[in-house]
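Bumping with the actual sequence this time:
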Amino acid sequence: MTILDGKKVSNDIKDEITEQVKKMKAKGEKVPHLAAVIVGNDGASLTYVGSKVRACERVGFESTMVRMSNTTSEIELLDKIEELNQNDDIDGFIIQLPLPPQINTQKVLMAVDPSKDVDGFHPENFGKMALDMSTFIPATPFGILELLDRYDVETKGKHTVVIGRSHIVGRPMSILMGRKGFPGNSTVTLTHSHTKNITQITSQADIIISALGVPNFLKAEMVKDDAVIIDVGITRVPDESSPKGYIITGDVDFENVSKKASFITPVPGGVGPMTIAMLLKNTLLAREQRM
């Protein structure tokens, strides 16, 4: 069994990007600039955006954090997005989700200039991805592809089962794993909350990508020997014995499933770190396209 070490691979990617940025600076070129917009005071969102800003500092990117209050109106946010769209200094930006209830998330994501949409959420970019065209791939699916690539996990002709159909992970992964090329060329089954006999499906899978958000959902009896397991789930589970009062748990019963798997991602330290690394990679791509 091999651990797909997202922490190590993400650090490798950041080191590679750092070297590219050093070369840009040596030539007097503009370095990539990533902006993040956060509305409200959600603790998890603030932590996540903070880690993105630190990642930018590490690789030598410019970064801007735009903080807006919980009472921000939809019009105010749309005005800020248009300002960022028009700012030539900023190569890419993200809108941290979730947004407060008074704001229509879909309307906001539609307002982002597709050429600056480094999250890959705009319908134009999603459509290009579905058509195998060059575009921004959403950061978490992009990170999963990179892990499979760097560990040389065979995907061609394999049966991939994706659990969860969110627009951020499940649905894009189902498209990407079925595309031509590597990683891809697998036969994909997309499962979700209405899927019947899910154990029957997962037990036939060569590769399982779980993005459900239900702690320890995937049990050993649901997995065949030598399956590849990608755990995208990340849930805070209360635990009084932990100094923080909670532990981070994935969708997979790691202790037992890992005994059967050929490759598996841990939680934390698997897919999570890859997401930020690929956001940086998308920002680098955005900068190259704008030059």
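The tokens above came from a reply further down the thread. The CA atoms of residues 36 and 94 lie 5 Å apart.
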